[in-house]
TrEMBL record:
<dbReference type="GO" id="GO:0016491">
    <property type="term" value="F:oxidoreductase activity"/>
</dbReference>
<dbReference type="Pfam" id="PF13561">
    <property type="entry name" value="adh_short_C2"/>
</dbReference>
<protein>
    <recommendedName>
        <fullName>Glucose 1-dehydrogenase</fullName>
    </recommendedName>
</protein>
<dbReference type="InterPro" id="IPR002347">
    <property type="entry name" value="SDR_fam"/>
</dbReference>
<dbReference type="InterPro" id="IPR036291">
    <property type="entry name" value="NAD(P)-bd_dom_sf"/>
</dbReference>
<keyword id="KW-0521">NADP</keyword>
<comment type="similarity">
    <text>Belongs to the short-chain dehydrogenases/reductases (SDR) family.</text>
</comment>
<dbReference type="InterPro" id="IPR020904">
    <property type="entry name" value="Sc_DH/Rdtase_CS"/>
</dbReference>
<keyword id="KW-0560">Oxidoreductase</keyword>
Amino acid sequence: MSSQATYPDLRGKVALVTGAGAGIGKAAALALGQAGCNVAVAEINEASGLQTTSEINNAGGKALFVLTDVSKSASIKALVEKVVAEYGKLDIAVNNAALSPDYGTIADLNEDTWERLIGVNLSGVAFSLKWELRQMQAQNTGGTIINMASATSIKAEKNLPAYSTAKHGVVGLTRVAALENGEHKIRVNALAPGAVSTELTINTLATMGFSEEEYSPRVGLFGRFARPAEIAQSVLWLASDASAYMTGSVMTVDSGLTIV
Ligand SMILES: NC(=O)c1ccc[n+]([C@@H]2O[C@H](COP(=O)([O-])OP(=O)(O)OC[C@H]3O[C@@H](n4cnc5c(N)ncnc54)[C@H](O)[C@@H]3O)[C@@H](O)[C@H]2O)c1
């Protein structure tokens, strides 16, 4: 099952990752640190954000923690300002922060849950794009942005109304941002993981009444959950010049989940 981790040479690049205190965001931040980037760890949970930051620094990388709430546009503005004050520029952004899915039908929609999830999982990506794109446009040196979508961006799923709708919206935002920024040489792509072994997955399965082990055989074509580090490898690829001709795309990394 294991794949060898590889790291492109991203020395001299500045990256920010939202939701970098846990799961996929943490794995992406660690991988970007390994690849030589200066990394801004943007997280609403101070303890976990500081933990990721010290893991990158202890591994010989360079990281900075910025307490961030992606659902607040002013918080993202302050994040980008802090990154530029500290590292002088922004080259790579990974818009990853999200809340765990709601669970229930549209007929039973809870309005408060809807507002909260859309606020973080969709508006959070829009606000992040706004301030990241302004900075990258002003620099005039291009850039690459990776929005964390999901298999539920592509395939409708019952009982995840706000989550699945927000993830469809992330693909829409990705395409619009790519269209508007080709002339600035800023690439914007979405990454759509299948089921990944993280806190978010454990929470979702618990609401459905399953453990991770019980659910594994139903996951994609390999009967297992992805490891966050496997998804981080795709983040690195989208962040690097290996994907230089790619923008406005949705890249699935889902062991075939969306083709069955
Ligand atoms: N786990 C999966 O199976 C899976 C599958 C497809 C897509 N995704 C997506 O990948 C991304 C990461 O998921 P994960 O499984 O690692 O989740 P996770 O719950 O393990 O981590 C999410 C992180 O985001 C942070 N966060 C939450 N709200 C925030 C806010 N308002 N501002 C800043 N940070 C905030 C949390 O504190 C947490 O550290 C999400 O966009 C998720 O929708 C996950």
